Amino acid sequence: MKAAQLVLRSTLASAAILAATGIAHAQEVNLYTSREPGLVEPLLEAFTKSTGVKVNTVFLKDGLAERVASEGESSPADLLMAVDMGNLADLVDKGLTQPVESQVLTAAIPENLRDPGNQWFGLSMRARVVYAAKDLEIDQITYESLADPEWKGRICIRSGQHPYNTALFSAFMSHHDAAQTEEWLTGLKANLARQAGGGDRDGAKDILGGICDIAVANSYYVGLMRSGAGGDEQRAWGDAIKVILPTFEDGGTHVNISGAAVARHAPNRDQAVQLLEYLVSDEAQKIYAEANYEYPVSSGAAVDPIIASFGELQVDPTPLTQIVTNRKEASALVDRVGFDN
Question: Known Pfam families for this protein (predicted)?
């Protein structure tokens, strides 16, 4: 009997120690994300292998904020992951996130790529670049010069209301006033070779087809095309272009991000922070670069060779939170100049 009591006391003591250290139960974290499964799963598998923490993932193509808001305080969501700075800002505006104080995160992520109140953090970048015909004698360009008359009838771009372009136009407004931005958009529209529309890869396709000489598009699509991930036809599109990293006249290259935030009512907050910190590690940043040809946010992480071939990326220092505040006005300007008509 005494032996049994000793075993019981020992078991209870061990349980208390485990509870105090946060490992009394199998550890897990619930991730809600709008990123494609094929891009996220390699990261999550590596995280679980490294830490033993299980990741339960809910993939949502649309309506991430609406889903979490509808679940309220009982939401099981721990970490919210999204593409586009605007989507992350919307999560904050709707009161769905909480601040995270982490030296790991602030040391790895440049200040302009995270929320000043530490509500969300950028995890990877895609640059808004220029695709150009390979035989075109040009190796540098500014965003401002895209409205110059020399490009009349020579530019392809997707809808001005697409988030990729709204973000770029919002960034333009951070360097110029609204009147200058409207004038620039009017000039850019006048230079289009076809109606704004399609996708970014269509810009490369249309350059190969002789429809336009340059296109405004995202950097990572070049990796997807040239790697053959999209098939031989898209490889030919990627091989038909060269990539130029544009800059603002008084700044650098515009980037958008994928990022994440800890949910306001996260039941597994510690594990959520642990996953967030893992995502800025060199191991995870390398996976980002390989899985989707994105730029790592951490300066110590390697860039995929296809993306590195574009040259050194000088990220525009404008805080993303400042760019986000211009979205509504930039969208209104797109309609005012009839950019998509």
Answer: SBP_bac_6
